[in-house]
Amino acid sequence: MVSKNNVLPEGLDTFPKLLARNAKQWANAPAYREKEYGIWQSWTWSEVFEEVNALAMGYVALGLNEGDYVAIIGRNRPYLYWAMLAAQAAGGIPVPLYQDANAEEMAYVLEHCGARFIVAEDQEQVDKVLEVQDNLPNVDQIIYFDKRGMRKYEHQHLNAYEDVQAEGRAGHYRLAPVLAERQAKLTEDSTCVMLYTSGTTGKPKGVVLSNTNIIASAKASSEFDNLSASDSVLAYLPMAWVGDFIFSIGQSCWTGFCVACPESPETMQADLREIGPSYFFAPPRFFEGLLTNVMIRIEDASPLKKRLFHKYMAHAKKVGPALLDGEEVSFMDKLKYKIGDFLIYAPLKNTLGLSKVRVGYTAGEAIGPEIFEFYRSLGINLKQLYGQTEASVFITQQPDGQVRVDTVGVPSPGVEIRIADSGEVFYRSPGVFVEYYKNQESTADTKDADGWVATGDAGFIEEESGHLRIIDRAKDVGQMADGSLFAPKFVENKLKFFPNILEAVVFGDGRETCTAFINIDLNAVANWAERNNVAYGSYQELAGNPQVYNIIQEHIEEVNKSVATDAMLSGCQIHRFLVLHKELDPDDGEMTRTRKVRRKIVGEKFQDLIEALYDGSTSVSTETEVTYEDGRKGLIKATLELRDVAVVPVNKEVAA
User: In total, how many domains does the chain have?
Assistant: First the structure.
C-alpha cells in the first residue's frame, strides 16, 4: 500500500516513522559512530531512537511549538544529526547552518527563518549567536553540546544538550503523549528540513523540502546503487549542504546503514582510512587534493619506487576501467593488473582510505579526465552525479557500466529532464522542492505550475546514450565581441585539472579576448619550490615568483591547445593572465561556503586588475582588504605581473 502520491510506502513517509522502524528492524546494528579522544564510539539504532526521543521531549519541555524552526550549528557529530531528527519528532523544522559562517552570515539565516531554538556545538558557535542576538528577537533558547568554557555564561536562555535530554526523560510520562500526538499529524507533505542555497549571486534562499522530497529521493537513489544496512558512509561535508543531509540522514534512515563522523577536519583523512566506508562522496576538489598529495610523495620516493609506480599506473590506466566495468581483458593483462594491485594499487587505496569503497560519487563541478581516470584505474567505482538543493540532490546519476567523464549520467529514477530552446536544462521529480521560504517571486521564476525546475545550467542530452552533458552555467554563457561562444567554466575546469592550479576565473564576455586570474595550489607549488630550492616567505611571494609564472604559463598554453580543438569554444583561449596575490576566500565574500566562485563579486572587487589585463599593462599595483582568521580586517598590497600567453590560430570560417 502506498501513499496518495504513489511515491512512499505507507508507514514510512516521515522520519519519526523511519527511526521507529529502524529501532525494531536493526535494533542492535550500528547507526552512528564518532571518533572522540582517539576512540571510536558507537550507537545502535535502538540507542539512537532513545537519544532522539529524549531530546525531542526536552524540546517540548522548553517550549518548542509545532512548526518552530530549530537551527543546528556545528561540525558533523551524531548529536547534531539527532538534534535534527529530534526537531522533526517534536513537530519542528531543522535548519542546519554552515559552521564556518561568520556571525553576520548566521544572523541573516536565523532572522530570515525566524528560528526560536538553536542547537550549537560549542562555545565558539554560541558566541557567534550571542554577538548578533540583539537582531534576533525570535531566538528563545540556545542549546549547546560541549560544556567547555560555558560555566560562567548567563543561563537564563542557555541549556546544556544533556540537561535538555535529562529533562525530557524526567518528564517522559507527561511529554511522550504530546510527542505522539505531534508525530501523528506529520505526513509526507510536512516540511522535513529547510536548507539554504550557497548564494552565488545574492543572499542565500531558504529551500523548503518536504518528507516526500527527501525520503523519495533517498529511496530511489539507494535502490539505484543497491545501498543496504551493510553499507557505511563517512560524514564530513557541511551539515548545511543538501548532499550531507541526504547521505547522513535520508539514505541512512531509509537503508539503515551506519554514519561515521571524524574526530575533526584535520583528522578526516586518517579517520577515513580507519572506517573504510563502502559508500563515499567528495567534490572534485577533494579528489584533486588527494592526487596532488600522491604525486608529491611519488616525487620524493626512491628511483625504484618511482619506476614501479609509473609502470603499473600506466597499465592500470590501460585496463583498470575495463576491468571495473566487467569488460573482456586478456589473461596476461589481468595477471599484470593483479601484480600491480599487490604492489601498488591496493596499498595506495588503503593509504587513501578508499579500499572498501563500493560506490563513490563526485559532483558540484566537472572533474578532470586524468583525475577521474586515475581513481577508476585503481578499481575504485567513482561515478558522477548532477544535482541541486532544489532537487533534493539527485537529477542524474551514472549507472554502473555507463561511467564516463564527459557526461553526468542518465536521469535518476523518477526524474524527467527536458532541454529548453535556450539550451537550459529543466527537470521535475518527486524530489522537487516545495518553495523558497518567504520568496514567492523566486519560486515562480524557478519552478513553473507543472513542476518543471530551471537548473540555470546549459546542456544537452546525447541521442544515442541518453546521457546529459553540462556545458556551463547558463547565466555565465555569453558571447565574445565577434559573436563566438563564451563559456568560462569550460576553460576554468580544464585549468584546474593541473595540480598547481587551485582556482581560476576567466573573463571575456563581450570582449575580443579572454583573460584569467589564477590561484596557485600552495601545497603543490610549495613542494615544487622545496624540491627546486626556491625560497619564499609567504603565499604572496611564491605566487609572484617568475618561475611559478613560467609553470602556470605552460599549463595555460596547454589548455589553449585543447580549447582550440573545440569548434564552438575555440574563441575562449586565454590571451593574458595574472596570478592573484591572495587565495579567493569565503570569509572575503569571493566564494560561497561550498567554495563556488562568486564571479560577479570577484569581477567588482578586482576591477582594476581586469582592466590592466585588457589595457596591455605588464604590471599593476593593487591593494586588497582581507579577513583574518580571528575576524580582523586588514589590507595587503602587491604589484602583480601580467603576462601574454601563446594562443592557437583558429580558422573562424571552419569553426563557424
Answer: 3
Give pairs for 559-566: CB < 8 Å, separation 24+: 559/491, 559/494, 559/495, 560/645, 560/646, 560/647, 560/648, 561/648, 562/494, 563/490, 563/491, 563/494, 564/647, 564/648, 564/650
Q: Can you give the CATH number for the domain in which 503 is found?
A: 3.30.300.30
Q: Which residues touch 390 (CB under 8 Å, ≥6 apart)?
A: 207, 432, 433, 446, 447, 453
Set of cell numbers at residue 496:
584546474
User: Containing H/E element for 410?
Assistant: strand 410-411
Q: How many residues comprise the chain?
A: 656
234 membership: H or E segment, kind and range: strand 232-234
Which residue type is seen at 180? A
**515 φ/ψ angles, rounded to the nearest 5 degrees:** -130, 170
Q: Is residue 141 a contact partner of residue 124, using CB atoms and an 8 Å limit?
A: no
Range of the domain at 189: 15-281
The letter for the amino acid at 634 is G
What's the rounded Cα separation, in Å, for the pair 262 and 199?
28
Is residue 510 very low, low, confident or very high in pLDDT (cuts 50, 70, 90)? very high
**φ, ψ for residue 236, nearest 5 deg:** -135, -10
Contacts for 24 with CB less than 8 Å, ≥ 6 apart: none
Q: Which of 161, 218, 167 is nearest to 188 (CA)?
A: 218
Instruction: Give the closest residue to 240 by CA, choosing from 198, 283, 272.
Output: 198
Residue 370 cell numbers, joined:
586524468
Q: Which of 281, 313, 345 is the last residue of a domain?
A: 281
Spatial contact of 218 and 254, defined as CB atoms under 8 Å apart: yes
Residue whose C-alpha cell reads 578526516 in the numeric block: 268
What is the amino acid identity at position 499?
P
The answer on 277 and 325 residing in a single domain is no
Per-residue model confidence as pLDDT tens digits over 380-414? 999 999 999 999 999 999 999 999 988 999 999 99
Query: Domain check: are 490 and 601 in the same one?
Result: yes
**Domain assignment present for 449:** no
pTM, two decimals, is 0.84
